[in-house]
Structure formats: structure tokens, C-alpha cells
């Protein structure tokens, strides 16, 4: 399928997990994909060779580097901001610098990247940010900073949808529940508890999230903006 033939795509955080599945899907659908990574050079280079995409090292915690990467990759038809992580543990014990870094990667980077992408984006451009169902529901202690960061993306999409809508540019948040990746392996600690209250009692697959991203990035989704799209086996229902 060549749904994205001739389209220029940048995925921030594309070397592993959900981001890598998005790179694979959009490249297979014909897009010219560039993706960033932080530390996983080998995984990034392998993925680039496998998919014919371009891997570049850019730390999403570095605001100016993120802005420069988006600017220099433009004009983009599609921006996907996937890079993100959680810090677990007692909020009273956590290192404030680690929490600030989380906010830089999970909130500041999506904001600045989205604004920068929109400067050059043509009419009909697409911005997709990977949030989390934890932006809606946080059923366990020790992940407040992560919940804050993913809730913030909801305001980002609602607000920037208003700014960019007149140019036909959409911005949406995809909110996964537990997805089987290095960060949350299906057989890891986050299995019994969430599966207990989910309707589909398994982790999702990165490819399932990539499918939703591909739809939002495509021509059928031109009237969809400022919205949250949850893919979570009813984790948050
Ligand atoms: P992984 O840890 O498996 O992969 C994270 C990806 O993001 C890697 O490619 C990594 O690059 C990149 N990345 C992380 N930090 C940075 C950074 N500072 N700069 C550039 N790239 C970075 O995570 P997942 O695939 O599980 O998660 C991806 C997104 O989905 C995150 O935003 C996460 O919050 C969200 N999500 C995940 C869920 C899950 O259950 N897995 C559930 C809900 C949301 P590198 O390889 O170089 O480290």
C-alpha cells in the first residue's frame, strides 16, 4: 500500500517499541520517514536499514535540539511525537532533576516540536502525539509525574487544534493502555494488576497503536482534531 507515497514524516523517538512500529508502518505505506533516538544507536541503525528510513540522534530533553531537528526536517506532512518515559516511585523521595527531565521529554518536546512543525507544514498536515490512558486514569501510586505529563498533552492538542485548524492541520493524542514494549513488557510487573480490570486481558501490540496513528495521519481523518484516541483494552473504561 502506498497511502503515504510522497509524504515526509518525522517520528521523535522511533528506534524501539511503539515508535519503531510507527516507523515500520508509515515507511511500508510509502512515506519518507526520518526518526530520532536517544541512546539506542544500534537498534536505530538496524531499523533504518530495514525500512529505508533515516535515523538521527536527538535527545528530546534538549529543547533547542528538538526545535532544530524539526526545522531542519521540514516541511513535514506528518509529525509523530512518541518519545516519552515514566519515573516510578514515592513522590516524596524522587529526584527533582529526574522529574524535570521527564517533563522536558514528555511535555516540552511535544509542545515545541508541534509548534515548530506547524511553521512549515502544508495545508492538511498531521501532528500526532503519543499520550497515555494514564492521562485519564491513574490507578496506582508512584506515577504522578507521568500522569501529569500525559494529561498535559490533552491541553496541548485541544489548544493547538484551535491555532492550526484554519490551515487544515490536525493535532491529536493517541492514548495507549499497556503495550508490550521494553518499557512495559507483557510478562513484566504490569501484567496481573491491569489485566485484572481490562476487558481485553492482554497487553496491546505496538503495531495496533501504529495502525491508529496511520489512520489519524491519513486522508480520512481530516475532520478529526483536538481529540484523544484511546487504545487500551478498556483499561480506562
Ligand atoms: P520504549 O522505552 O520501548 O521506547 C521509547 C522510544 O522513545 C525509544 O525509541 C527511545 O529511544 C525513545 N526515547 C526515549 N527517550 C528519548 C529521548 N530523550 N530522546 C529521544 N528519544 C527518546 O517505550 P514505549 O514504546 O513503550 O513508549 C513509547 C511512548 O508510548 C511513550 O511516550 C510512552 O509514554 C507511551 N506509552 C507507552 C505505553 C506502554 O505500555 N508501553 C502505554 C502508554 C503510553 P532510545 O531507543 O534511543 O532510547
TrEMBL record:
InterPro entries: KR_dom, NAD(P)-bd_dom_sf, Sc_DH/Rdtase_CS, SDR_fam. SUPFAM superfamilies: NAD(P)-binding Rossmann-fold domains (SSF51735). It comes from the Bacteria. Residues 7-182 form the Ketoreductase domain. SMART domains: PKS_KR. The lineage of its organism: Bacteria, Pseudomonadati, Pseudomonadota, Alphaproteobacteria, Hyphomicrobiales. This is Cyclic-di-GMP-binding biofilm dispersal mediator protein. PROSITE patterns: ADH_SHORT. Belongs to the short-chain dehydrogenases/reductases (SDR) family.
Amino acid at each position: 500500500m502506498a497511502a503515504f507515497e510522497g509524504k515526509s514524516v518525522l517520528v521523535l523517538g522511533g528506534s524501539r517499541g511503539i515508535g519503531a512500529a510507527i516507523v515500520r508502518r508509515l515507511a511500508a505505506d510509502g512515506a519518507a520517514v526520518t526518526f530520532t533516538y536517544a541512546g539506542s544507536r544500534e537498534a536505530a541503525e538496524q531499523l533504518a536499514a530495514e525500512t529505508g528510513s533515516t535515523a538521527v540522534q536527538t535527545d528530546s530533553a534538549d529543547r533547542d535540539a528538538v526545535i532544530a531537528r524539526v526545522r531542519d526536517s521540514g516541511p513535514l506532512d506528518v509529525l509523530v511525537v512518541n518519545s516519552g518515559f515514566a519515573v516510578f516511585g514515592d513522590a516524596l523521595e524522587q529526584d527533582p532533576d529526574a522529574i524535570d527531565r521527564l517533563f522536558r521529554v514528555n511535555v516540552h518536546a511535544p509542545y515545541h516540536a508541534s509548534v515548530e512543525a506547524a511553521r512549515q507544514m502544508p495545508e492538511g498536515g498531521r501532528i500526532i502525539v503519543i499520550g497515555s490512558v494514564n492521562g485519564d486514569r491513574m490507578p496506582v501510586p508512584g506515577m504522578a509525574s507521568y500522569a501529569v505529563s500525559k494529561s498535559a498533552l490533552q491541553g496541548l492538542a485541544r489548544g493547538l487544534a484551535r491555532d492550526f485548524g484554519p490551515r487544515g492541520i490536525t493535532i491529536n493524542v493517541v492514548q495507549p493502555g499497556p503495550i508490550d514494549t521494553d518499557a512495559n513488557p507483557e510478562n513484566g510487573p504490569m501484567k496481573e494488576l491491569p489485566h485484572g480490570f481490562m476487558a481485553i486481558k492482554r497487553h496491546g501490540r505496538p503495531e495496533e497503536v501504529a495502525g491508529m496513528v496511520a489512520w489519524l495521519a491519513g486522508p480520512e481523518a481530516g475532520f478529526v482534531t483536538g481529540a484523544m484516541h484511546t487504545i487500551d483494552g478498556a483499561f480506562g473504561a
